[in-house]
Amino acid sequence: MKAQRRQQLKANSLIWTLQGLPETIKRYQSQIALVLILIALAIVMIRYRMNAAEQRLQEAQQSLSIASEELHHLQMGSYYPGSDPPEYVKRRMEYYSDGLQQADDALQKAPDSQPALKAEALLVKGDINFEMANAPEMPGAATQPSLRPPETIENLLNNAYDAYMQVLQNYSDQKYAATAAHFGLAAVAEDRAVAGGGNNTSQWDAAKTQYQAVVDSDAEPGFKAIAAQRIQLLPQLQRPAAIGLSASTMMTPLGPTTQK
Q1: Which residues lie closer than 8 Å to 179 by C-beta, 6 or more apart?
Q2: DSSP state of 198
Q3: Distance CA 228, CA 3 (A)
């Protein structure tokens, strides 16, 4: 009897609750509506952030692709006798400025969850500056400022150095990028040594240090072999023509510069 009585009381309680539900909803309908609106807004914000992140990633990839194309133009744009010097310089300036802008855009837009993409953008930025530093001197550049590079060779090399160093400081766990950055820093050091007349032993030592870092790292065997060969060649490297190898150029025989 007691169990039957308890069951009856529970049933009556449920009936009373259901009967009072419309009144309860009416009484708190504004609060309920607010909660539903907040939930809907949270869902919208989450979807917006996901879509925005995906869009920024796509934009970063596109910017890096364009920057890499501009770098390729700089690497392939050798000056030929008979070419129009002003037009040649103008094209290189466009490749240079647009390439740097696109590389910076890629670096800024790439999510923090894409360190390889950010590191690649820095490598391209370094290579663009390095290529401009090694651009051939135009006939008449001594008397015509318009035929000169946008910055001094020293500044361009400093810009390249800074970009390569940022890779090692911020993305050293990216094996390919770190290897390329060491090659880039070595190339900058070699250029500086040659600019100093070839007798700047500190720069030759700096280049050796970067190559040795590759040899001692977990880089691919092919890259280690190149670094070891460069160490052996350092005592013989005296001419600028033997130095103009950027981070990507040194690694080209073993594969493309852009990490897949």
Answers
A1: 214, 217, 219, 220, 223, 251
A2: T
A3: 89
CA-based end-to-end distance of the chain? 77
Structure tokens at 195: 């600019």
Sorting pLDDT into bands at 50, 70 and 90, what band is 151? Answer: confident
Strands (E) across 54-104 are located at: none
153 with 109: CB under 8 angstroms?
Answer: no
Tokens 């150095």 — which residue? 161
> Tokens standing for 213?
């870092």
Name the burial class of residue 122, with classes exposed (0-12), middle (13-18) and buried (19+) by CB atoms within 10 angstroms of its CB.
buried
Q: Helices 115-133 and 175-195 meet at what angle, rounded to 10?
A: 20
In sequence order, the 6+-apart residues with CB closer than 8 A to the CB of 256 are none
pLDDT tens, residue by residue, 37-63: 666 666 656 655 555 667 888 999 999
Enter the pTM of the model. 0.72
What the block records as the tokens of 98 is 């647009």
